[in-house]
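Support request, please re-run this one:
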Amino acid sequence: MNLLANPVPWPNGATCAAAFTFDLDAESVLQVERPDDAHEKLFSLSMMRYGPQVAIPRLVRIFREYDMRSTFFVPGWVAERYPDAVKMLADSGHEIGHHGYLHESPNRLSPEDEQYWFDRALDSLRRISGQQIVGYRAPSFDMSLATPGLLNRNGFTYDSSLMGDDVPYVMRDTSGSLLELPTSIILDDWPQFAHVWDLATTNQISTPRRAKELFLSEFDAVAQEGGLWVGVWHPWISGRPARARAMIEMIEHMQKTAKVWFAPLAEIAAHIRTLIEGGTWSPRVDDLPYHAGRLPEWEKTSWQRGKAAE
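Re-run finished. Output below.
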């Protein structure tokens, strides 16, 4: 029984597509959440700086060993502070994607402020990576209703912030249509490993084995059915030795289990566009906004009427 209603025909007879994607945040999250005292938090700063300084060279070696290329979403501020890490990734064939400027959440910003930080980050990422930036992931997945318009006006070919399907789909608003390469919070390493007192994040830390089992359970479910698997990981979290070793074990399992196409998201997006333009596959379309505003039904609840009478 095929659980996917609209499987994708992947290149060269592959039964699924997979991308190990990374959000290279470094200490930007701490800076944006604690702007007044982040500079004093040496414990957290050192933990997050591990990403560009130690984990990135390790990840580059791993992917070179397995002849794989991936996508690294980078805030513009991080690219400015760690240009050598970004250049190392770009020189190794990895895609650099847009991830805000200082990991600011778009839904906390006015449309004007979102555009300012978006443009500033885009300029830095293009200059430092030498790439044409075509992919976006919203910081904290917190895409705003203004974000698709920004992406369409700047010629982006895909977004990977949303979680509405098991295969690529299209989100459409008044600015046009944009391809969505969805992921899932199930495939994010943050709930499994992130433990940062200075961010009030104290998840129970999983073992690499337990996290690997969770990530692979999702892969195994779509491996033979034309699905898309997009991991969302952070170098300072998953670049640690035991977790990096588990990543290697995952890659080897995936290679043995299915005929999988490992590719950067930009290449996956290009393949999907070719299928659509050739009429060989059609994506589902999500129209935005999902809701026009506050639900009118909510105004009729007895609880709301009682609140209004107080």
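The chain has a mean pLDDT of 95. DSSP finds twelve helices and twelve strands in the chain.
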